[in-house]
Task: structure prediction
Amino acid sequence: MTKILAVDDSASMRQMITFTLKSAGFDVVEACDGVEGVNQARQHKCDLVLSDVNMPNMDGIAMTKELRTLPDYKYTPILMLTTESGLDKKTEGKNAGATGWIVKPFKPDQLLNTIKKVLG
Amino acid sequence: MSIELSQFFQVFFEESFEGLDVMESGLMSLDPANVDNEMINSIFRAAHSIKGGSATFGFASVAEFTHVLETLLDEVRSETRGMSPDMVDLFLQSVDCLRELLEGLQAEVPVDGARADGLRQKFEAILDIPAGAVVSGAVEVEPVAIGWQINMVGGEDILRTGNEPIRMFTQLSEMGELTITTDFSRLPAFSALTIENCYLSWQLTLMADNVTRADVDEVFEWVVDECEITIEPIMDESLPVATGQVEAAEAVQEIAPAAAVASAAPTGVAAPQTQKKAEPGSIRVDIDKIDTLINMVGELVITQSMLGQIGADFTFDKVSKLQEGLQDLERNVQVLHESVMQVRMLPISFTFNRFPRMVRDLSRQLNKKIDLVVKGEQTELDKTVMEKIGDPLVHLLRNSLDHGIETPAERVKAGKPETGVVSLNAFHQGGNIIIEINDDGAGLPKEKILAKARKNGIIGPDVGLSDEQINDLIFQPGFSTAEVVSDVSGRGVGMDVVRRNIQELGGHVSVKSAEGVGSTFSISLPLTLAILDGQLVRVGNQVYIFPLVSIVESLSVDMKQVSTVAGACDLLRLRDEYIPIIPLYEAFGIEPDSRNLEKSLIVVVESENTKVGLVVDELQAQQQVVIKSLETNYQSVQGISGATILGDGTVSLILDIGGIVTIGQTVAPMQIKAA
Result:
């Protein structure tokens, strides 16, 4: 089963993302910040990573950089969950190695459509 | 697929309120002149999360309001703007406003948006955004195209960001008829080839008459900066002739199955999970506590299997092993008991957290300079006790600020520093938690209290009282020393209510004070409401439990001190007061060992400053008992607060002293003060 790592410090966002993805038949692993995200990524071989940008301990940008150094995550799609106001974050995220982004707020359907795009 | 977003609201509200607390305490500790980076970051993050969540879950009012707040915070964070005390005030007001908005949404009641609008205008004034500015996206009228000609020169690094061109082509192929020509000209010699790089370019022709430019842009959205991409509309029937169209057609064929798989995969949908909605009375438990519990249950299982083995073929030479096992069991159960209790425990900071803000606001209002010192905020307390202790604490704290701490001028005159200190301290003592509220203010004015008590008839004109007794008078019903009822404390609700509320929790409150030096209010609370320190007493063949905290003393009776009142109950003269005697055997209709008072014992109990003497046959052990509710299993009974199971398996009733005192008062309507 396709496994997705969802990283967000907001419990309600995590809950919404996880529920949406599980309903669509994906396997989901959660993390509440970048540090936990890297740990989870090491333990589970995930096919896609969704990550918030602004998080305590380690933000989404730093986590993406870290993940790209892991052999298993060299080419894995990593999508940043950013807000409209964070346009410069998109570039920063790309420079760190992120595949793309999903703009918050998004509806469950939009999330699934975008995921379909990268999991092709 | 449609997903009901409302199932996530509960968690969203919980985390948003937590976020607001983080913002509030962060703002309170922020020094506007020297903004701490980590602090402003966590404030920003909290606002950012609330904005993101509220937008996602459709709470536009909150999202819009948080947006301006966040924008200003972001400017402070990135140091393009300094922080000022006025801005801190504005942020704090916004936190209140957001809390109000969220509470309204949670309770599903409409909230007046005027406050939010007012604050938003202030933010917009700071941010220099013209009021009512609406960001409007100009609607471009797009010529209708029947297809798109796309040239894409792959950026060398795109594979390293996980952008696989074939995925984009698959996406395009789902929109219409796609032909692809691949340009290999940039491919280096084999020896110079780096497999992680992309060297290819493509010409793509997409024939579709209902695909807009935006649709095509979206496909390349993530790689538009790294790749050279040109997108041209195809306007007429004459197709541009692409070279190598045959190869391209093959490429499409190769892609097609992949596309089929892609579209098939997500439709293999698992049945939507029904998620249990979080109960409003939910509690967040530290994962370590749960782990401890699981660990203990594991130990218990081991002990149980060990005992099972001993029991399976028991011989008397195994008695010592059996005893060992039982000791283990006892220890395990005790630890398990403690760990389960721990689950309901929250750090008292949950209650304390709102006080710094309150002290800040009140001291401004009162024109006093007051520092609040909080200690022991990690001390843990039962959730129910925590919820109920909030109001009495607020009252005591307000009292200290209003009546305790003097104005700066008065303090300087008295030789004290201008700034008063109120400290809040929580700690464990024995099986209780103690909360102390200390101020270095004026202390309780003893003469004033005495005069007032005499005036109100609380004490007789000539009664001499110790300092401690005088201080205690402030907890008497109808007592208030404030000459003018101020906005801050004292509006009908007196210290007697505080005491009553604390007593309802099984605790008590006392005060120590020295005039000119300050006062300390001390609240003692049981760690939990589920367990009670009880005194076992026997009446006839029944064993009852008295809450230990209500017992004043126990004595055997000297008949000379008992007076009989015609038509009412007997009165016991205890030092300087008469207290009604209630024989429990009469109240509960059971047969005692003896109806002769001299052969019985009297236990003097107190509730709300009223004492009664209860006649019992025997005092037994003191022990902790677990309270089981009577209402849930039977119905409420006057004079009984619950039941418990004793060590020998018998059920014992726990006395509700307040109820018993009421029974006593109906037979002896008032306590008579001895002359």
User: Anything to note?
Assistant: The radius of gyration of chain B is 38 Å.
